[in-house]
Specification:
The protein has 263 residues and is of the alpha/beta class. The chain is built from 9 helices and 11 strands.
Length: 263
Amino acid sequence: MKTFVVGDVHGRCAQLHRLLDMLPRDEAADTLVFLGDLIDRGADAPGCVDLVLGLQRENPERVVCLRGNHEQMLLDFIDGAANLWITPVTGGERTYEQYVGKSLQITKEQDLEEVRREIENGVPAEQLDFFQAMPYYYEDDYAIYVHAGLDKTKHPRETEPQALLWMRDMEFYKNYRGKPCIFGHTPTPLLPLWGRVGRHGIYISHSAIGIDTGYNLQSPLSCLSLPDFTLYQTFSDGHEETHHITSFIPETLKAMQKRAGIG
């Protein structure tokens, strides 16, 4: 039994299709976990959501998709709780265009309500239900999986959802030593250098493992397999890479491999 963990997708549907095709996954025995942020920035957010939703429907016991801060921002915008999703930095305007079929235009206060109605009506009801049902974390024998990280030594069930979706904590990145935690949210090029060198773009420091390998033309979309630590990556130019990581693995993670009979 393996667990395949996919980092932040952000609308890269073609890369996601190729990445899933790479995985030697036994659908009856292996678990597939998405760390959230299926939407925004990329060329086909609706396609990404439809693909992952379909996988989960076909195999609900073995496919898990966590809630990312971008899904939360969209839900908050539709509910009228916050307008952060439509600010340029989020890439939400691209998702709006893809679901609604026109450019985002807001010139006055009244436009906000119209845009809310349009995106709520534009996203299929089954996809909105999917967003609302996304859990904030997942845990199995190998690791804890969250979108953004852990609040010090707290278990996710004892942590506010806001932290699980948004936190960026250098103490966690550098010094976390609990049960292995796989996270996304913060692109690995922004994480401490000494946890990145020689890791093929992912981040490993003690028990913290970051696999959001960024979003630009050179960034891979990454999937890490546990407990064997095989890294699968697809790139926007069409090429693919596979790396079996054997170096730099902290002792806590080596112990996980030993329990699984690896190494």
